[in-house]
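Hey,
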Amino acid sequence: MPTFKRTLSVAFKVPNPADIIAYAEEGYQNMMTQSYHKGFHTYLMAALYVPQKGVYLCSLPDGPALALIKNTGAAQAPALWSQIRSREPSLKIHAEDCAAYLYESSLTTKLAPGARYPAGSYIAVHGWYEALTGVNKDKGRPVGLCTSAAKHPVNPTCTAVFRALGVASDAPAAAPAGPGPHGPTGPVGPVGPVGNEGPSG
């Protein structure tokens, strides 16, 4: 499944989580209009807002994008890579990771391994997967960051990774309960002032 990615300038002066969630929804619905997105069991779009940079959107990476992140993550996204390089049981790259990679790879001066993102950074995910019964696949819905489940074990989870990076992610009010790789997450911190458009990843 080819990877959808986009960097958006921001049009609001005082951001709130609903704005970032709306960008994730826009990206998701755009992705779902593309003819090659057929027959998969999981569709997700992550939107990462970074103050003074922009909003970075990415779907689940596959093919060339997946190889690019794995082959260049240490050099191009050292803060993210320091969190996910030892992920078990295998190095699974999620939509959230891909959005973070787009942000870090756009930086001329790279963040150090173990560094945190600028205060006020926020990430949201919109999508659909099989456990979301009664949800229209083409429209999807807000979901939490990835967690570990019996069918989808992952350590560290995206919840843990983005907490370590200092990125906020409030669980949507209607976050799905029950099985599935994306469940509710807790708040990490407030969203800060919005800056300018970031360079494309």
